Amino acid sequence: MALAKFAPPTRMDEPVPDILTRGQTSSRLNIAMGAVDKLLAARVLENPIRLEVVERLERRSYLVVEEGELTVLRTDARKRAYPGEDRPWIGFSTEHSNEELDATSLRWWRSYPRRVIDNELFVVTVATVPVAVYKIEDVESEQVRSGEDKPRFHYSGTLLHRVYPGLVDRALSPAVPVQYKDRVRQIMSSRIKVVSGGPIGYLNAGS
User: Fold this and answer.
1) What value does the mean pLDDT of the chain take?
2) What is the pTM of this model?
3) Tally of domains in the chain
4) DSSP track, 71-140
5) Bridge partners for 19 per DSSP
6) Residue 130 belongs to what domain range?
7) Distance of CA 167 to CAs 64, 126, 144, 185, Å?
């Protein structure tokens, strides 16, 4: 009997690309295209979008609070501040200095100050990705803007951890108090989804 001859394969394994499109990134992370654009503008993701970085985000689970509450700021990518403000930027960028990050993250927010202070930890996110964690200490000041009837608050806080361009994550500083270390590590290796009518939201056991 003659040696078997095979028909050409009908399916071929496609090579996995090292670079993803915005659409592929949107699909893999289950976020809107606009959210991908925020991550790019904030340089949490870099262009071209590397598969390895997206896979790291894709593997993350969403953070779940079993007891207590976590304050979450959902912010946009960096933009020029409004005229008259004493800071150059609003929003997040991995290129911010720590001082610029403080100025964009800790003010001016409609929020419940007692709640924010009691929660202690304050997470900054861009499109579900945690980018910084603060320990909130107190209210620094408050203001009522023209045309508004409720105050916005400026908090004082200590930066515990942050990300850098391309989602580079550095080792936790030894200065981070021991009671926060595990919580900060888990926050920064998770994704966070919170429902809120404004930038400040609260993740709790009922979320």
Assistant:
1) 94
2) 0.90
3) 1
4) EEEE--B-EEPPTT-SSSEESB-TT--HHHHHHHHSSSB-S-HHHHHHH-EEEEEETTEEEEEEEEEEEE
5) 50
6) 62-204
7) 22, 12, 36, 14
